[in-house]
Amino acid sequence: MSQNGTINELGTERIGKLLTQYAVPAIIAMTASSLYNMVDSIFIGHGVGPLAISGLAVTFPLMNLAAAFGSLVGVGASTLISVKLGQKDYDTAHKILGNVVVLNLLIGIVFTIVTLAFLDPILYFFGASEATLPYARDYMVTILLGNVVTHMYLGLNSVLRSAGHPQKAMLATIFTVVVNTILDPVFIYGFGWGIRGAAIATILAQILSLIWLFKIFCNKNEVLHFHRGIYRLKRVLVENIIGIGLAPFFMNVASCFIVILINKGLKLYDGDLAIGAFGIVNRISFLFVMIVMGLNQGMQPIAGYNFGAKQYHRVNQVMKLTVIAATLITTTGFLVGELMPKLAVSAFTNDETLINISAQGLRIVVMFFPIIGFQMVTSNFFQSIGMARKAIILSLSRQVLILIPCLIILPMFWDAKGVWLSMPISDAAASIIAAIMLYKQFQTFKRHAIEQGLTIDKQ
């Protein structure tokens, strides 16, 4: 089947089949990506020590900030490309691809220069101490030197998925994970490079995957491919890309400040090891979050294409199926965190004190996990159909309007436990807001479907 035929299936094939076709590769890719981060933490925890785990956790805010700029371009562009392909506007889709390359290059270089110039003060501000700073610095210097590669790899992989190649996007991520997993023990143990070895393994794996992505986009038989005349930045395209990408951008920026508050609160009441405990809990909970994000990535081109084609009944169908699947995933995370917390956290460390702090934190964090999948899908849904403002509101409601005040107020009454409790409380409140906004949007789509002579559940 031609590439045009594959893309057109987004508007004609059964929704259940499409979601499976697009989401399964994305879920595998995101699960692999999460395991890729977990592998780093496991090797660092057992090969370098518990303080190295804390040093790695100190870098999370900076990693979130880097991801914010990456998602600003990658997510915004991939969403816009899905809509343009649904509208058969291939010329604009090509120009978006070219703008992705240029924007990632420019943003990646500027971010690296600025952060390297002020790295130590930044890490201290993020919660580092004299004991954990050397580990955090060794890791981040290498990661930042490869920041352009990371941005380009993530951006092009998102575009590849939206261009009708979810399997290839999945393979690129899996390849990166496999290479990183092989190189981690070699660099950390074999070469004795410690935590820096984990960072080097990460960047080398991404370089190899990026080379393959460039090869795919250089193929002129692809609907989207590199060619002359698409790399000049177009103001209207840049504004649209950034406008749609603002939702995940603000979400990641908010995550940066939230992790700073968490690190500082835990360090104040429980010391450096508590920061390491949050790092472990974050890795475990993020595994299930990443699976839902993979599900969202599978939904995104289907929802974007059909919204662009004004097939609102299909937009509703893919949303409902995605919510059901996401709820099953996050409920599994809830059961793991509540029934076997010590078993889960012991994979990262042998230190008994760190295990106990981490297990207690994990149980609290996953308290309302069964409903967080719904909130994540709803936010991504609005983003997928180009409703950036609603997506931003949902993202910021949890991260800024609810979680930050909780992180400031609750520790005044319950010390470190108040820090941990802030997370599930914000999950529950944000899910209620998402339910209200989604209900109103469904009513709008229902009216559109009736006007078209369709029913919401029509295949």
From TrEMBL:
One of its GO terms (biological process) is response to antibiotic. InterPro entries: MATE_fam, MATE_MepA-like, MATE_MepA_subfamily, MdtK-like. The keyword Ribosomal protein does not apply. It is found in: Cell membrane. Keywords: Antibiotic resistance, Cell membrane, Membrane, Transmembrane, Transmembrane helix, Transport. The chain crosses the membrane at residues 21-39, 51-75, 96-119, 139-157, 169-191, 197-217, 237-262, 274-296, 317-337, 357-379, 391-414, 420-439. It is a multi-pass membrane protein. Pfam families: MatE. GO terms for molecular function: antiporter activity; xenobiotic transmembrane transporter activity. The keyword Aminoacyl-tRNA synthetase does not apply. GO terms for cellular component: plasma membrane. NCBIfam families: matE (TIGR00797). Belongs to the multi antimicrobial extrusion (MATE) (TC 2.A.66.1) family. MepA subfamily. PANTHER family: MULTIDRUG EXPORT PROTEIN MEPA, SPORULATION PROTEIN YKVU. This is Multidrug export protein MepA.
